[in-house]
Every structure is written in structure tokens, then in C-alpha cells.
Amino acid sequence: MPTPHAPTATSAAVPTGTESTTDGDDACHTTAAPPSREPRRTDIPVLAVSGGLLTAFVLAALIAPTATGDAVNAVFTFVARWFGPLWQVLLLATFGVALWLGFSRYGKVRLGGAGARPEYGRFQWVAMIMSTLLAGGGVFFAAGEPVQHYVETPPYYEGVKSGTQQAADAALSQSFAHWGFLAWAVLGTLASIVMIRGQERGMPLRPRTLLYPLLGERIRHSRLGAAVDIVCVIAVVAGTVGPIGFLGLQVSYGLSQVFGISGGYPVQLGVIVLLTVVAVLSVASGIDRGIQFFSRANIWLAVALMAVFLVLGSLGFVLDSFLGGLGQYAKDFVPLALNRGDHAWLGSWTVFFFGWFLGYGPLMSIFVARISKGRTVRDLVVSTAIIPPLATMFWFTVFGGTGIFLEQQNPGTISGPLKAVGMDAAVISMAERLPMGAVVAVALLLLTITFVVTTTDSMSYSIAAAGTKTGEPTRAVRAFWALLMGAAAAVLILVGDGGITALQSFIVVTAVPVGFIMLPTLWTAPRVAKEMALEQGIVLREPPVTGPEPQSSAVPEPSSAVVPEPQSSAAPEPSSAVVPEPQSSAVAGPQESQG
Known about the structure:
- There is one protein chain.
- The protein is 75% helix and 1% strand.
- By secondary structure, the chain is mostly helical.
- It has one domain (41-536): Amino acid/polyamine transporter I (Up-down Bundle), CATH 1.20.1740.
- The longest helix has 37 residues, at 223-259.
- This is Choline transporter.
- InterPro entries: BCCT_transptr.
């Protein structure tokens, strides 16, 4: 993903009016230069505090895993109960506002200025966005979650008989509710619009910029700005360490099943070390090389694997299930998003996922803003909140639907390993039961690694940017965060299930302050979109209401005001009394109508 474009003095100074076109052109033509000229300044307090807090949590989990897990779980229960409703409303509202912006007249607004043009082709752009988020659970949850909902019907669909096609539709619908439109909207739409606008105005690509429309320049160097950066960094680090840990578990289980290699901690540690080394090399090479390469590789490998599953599995069942699940999801869209029935179940599923995605929001918006300059608002909304969710839902249907199909043919085939081992066992068990199962399983493990590499390196870049005052984040800082997240995952897996469970709960806890940081984007994003529309001439500026309005209520006033003037002049009273009146009324009429 491209390096952030530091705004020029011109782009930060020109607020409105006819100069907006020049502003956009200037911003477009000077995007690459500022980072190379601008000195790199790392924000040491943000780096030290966020890194220190993460290290403290990992050490606490290592020294006292039971006490740490109990404490985090207690806070998690409280947070899920009382903040879960806010997150559900926030994600639903974000999707609604994003759709309105994208398909209103503001959808034509070009991000970065009227003259800005995209740096990446559409495929490269969407591939980088999708790979970054889908890696969080694209393979880990895609097979296991639908099967889990199939064998244990979610509370919202209580009464649906398990083992039926209706149960399969309900299982996919519930999975779509977690990984569909709402998740993607909060990660790539409103916050990214605010972030790009802030960058145009001279603000850095840091989480604090999300509050720029509310607080202005005060947020740039304030303690509140530093606190915002710190909590957002901690949230996304926790959310990224989780997938790294999941990867170690999944690859370890897969190697033990396919090749008979003992799946103990040494294997898990080896997988995490390999992933971390690759992620460090990728993020050090920059967005245009490593991150972009792995993003493209992810998409092509994912498409190939989907084709293999459709051919070797049941194409008809998967297509029927996709349509049935999508129809059920559309029917229950709002009730599923706002469901508050079973608080314990919601905390383990819906609220957990929503908190996880929300925690990613600010740092993901940095990444999306970094690679989306030159796109229109409509382009952004369609390519983040519509296309990726639909692709994700089909992805979940291919893997989850195939798992349900195999479970129907032989009950316990997939659900047995799922219950005994966990999510990491579902996709491997499914692959083993297909023709050429060993080859398919290895390809799945490879895809899992490349997906998580993409998330780790892109988030390492965003975290480093969040801790950089000016210029591009240094390679050392980018590599530091990749190494720290890999080390944290290795330690938490060493602790055992308690460490991973504590981390999952911690992810939700860290989303609490992030939710309040993302909340204002519901009204600041439309506001800045309107500002950009005015500057780019997409929306005409309404003429100001001026004083002549009161005069329009009293028609005789002009004539009474004109009479004394001719009298003060000389003899031509009759002609001067006649001529000025039409002139004064002719001038006043358009003013009144404009007013």
C-alpha cells in the first residue's frame, strides 16, 4: 500500500471557492514528493506507551495466566453486556450513512481533490483491502462458523430444525451477519473519508485525525490526540495478534493431520517465526512491493481454491445454499444486526466480532486512506462496503456450505473435530474428505499463511504510521511492530488456551474507547463530503440570505424613499420622479428573489 502523501502548503491553506480545482490538481501532482523531503519523526511517547502496555499484558498472561484470564473475562462480560448494543447500532448506522453518501450526489466527490487520480488499478486496490481484513478469519472461521451454527442453531433462529436446508440457510445467514456488510462498512467507508480530508488539510494519517472535524488543530499536538492514537494502536495490535495465534494453531493441526507431524508448541512456534520473518520482510519492502505482491497472490490463490472446492465438493448445494442464505440474511438484516436476545451467546459471537472489527476501524481507515486517493466516494463505498462483503459471503458459503454438505452426508464428520479441537480443525477435516485431500489441505495452509502475512504487514505499516508525527514511518518501526506482534502470539500460545481466550476477550475490551472515536464519523463524514463537493463544483453553493428580505414586505417604501431625492435636485422633478422608481425596483427585484 502506497506511502501516505503529505499535503502541500497550498492544499492545506485553500479552503473553498474557485481555487478548489487548483488545490486538487496540486495535491495530485505532488503526492509522491513530500514524504521524501519531509523528515521522519517518530512519536516516542505513543510508541513507548502502546508497546509497553501490550508487553505488560503478555507478561501478565505468562506469569499469572489464570488470574489474567479471569480479570479480562470479567471485564469482557461487562463490556459485551453494556457496550454491545452501542456497537450494533453504530455498525448498522455506519452502513446506512455510507450507502446514502455513496449513492447521493456526494458520491461523485473525488477523494484527494478534483485532479487526483488513483495510484493503483482496481484489482490491486480491492485485493489489498480484502486481504487485510479477510485474513483475520477468512480461513479460520469460514468453514467452522457455518457448521457450528448448523449443528447448534443460533438463538435468533430458535425453532429451526437442525439438519435441514432451512437450518443451513439460517447458519449461513448468521455467519453473513457477522462477516457481511456491517463489518466491511465500519472498516473502509466513513472513517476513510474523514482521514483523507484531514490529510488534505495538513493532518497526519493518524487515528487522532478522525476527531479533526470536531476539534480542529487542537487535536494535532494535544494529550487527547496522543491518547486516541494509543488506544487505537492497542486495539488493532490485539486484533492482529489473534489471527497470528490462530494461524499457529491451524497450521500445527494441519501438519499433524496431513503429514503426521506432532502438532506441539515447537511446530506452532516455528510457524509463527516463519510468518513473522516474512511479514517483516514484506512491510520493510513497502506497500508497492511486499504488501501488494501478497495481496494479489492471496486473491488468485483464494479464487483457485474456491474453484477446487466447487468442483470436488457439491457445486449445486453450494449455489443453492448461497442464494438461500443470502435471501434469509436480506430478510432478517436489521433484526439480526440489532438482536439482543441471548446476551451470553451474543457476547461470544456477534458482539465479539463487532468489537473486533470496530477495533480495526481507525487503523484500517489509515490503510484505506493511504491507497484510495483519487477514488470517488461512490467508488470507495462500492469497493469496500458492497463488493468485498458479497465476495466474503460467497467465500463463507463455499467453505462453510461444503462443510455442511459433508456433515449432512455423514453426521459428525466435520462437527466432531470442530467440537473436540476447535475452529482450526474444521477446514482441515473438510479438506481431508475431498479428493486429493492432502494437496487441498496444504494449499489451504499456504493460503492461511499468506492471508495472515498480509494482515500483519499492512497493520504493522498502519501502526507505525499512527506513531509517526511527520513523514513516512521508518523501516525499523514497521519491523518492530511486526516482531512484537509475532512475539506476543508466540507467548500467548505457550500459555495455552487460557492465553488465546484472554486475548480474544481483550480484543473486545480494547474496542470500548475506539467505539467513541468512530462514533462522530456518522455526521462528520457527510459534512466533509459536502465541503469537498462544494470545492469541486459538484454541489452549487447556496447564495447567502441578505438584508433586502425585510424590504420586500413593504412595497410602497421604495417610492416613498425616492420622492425626496428628486425634490432635492432641480426642476426636472417630473422626469426624475418617474425614472428612478423603475430603476430602484428593477434592482431590488432580483435581490429579493435571490435572497
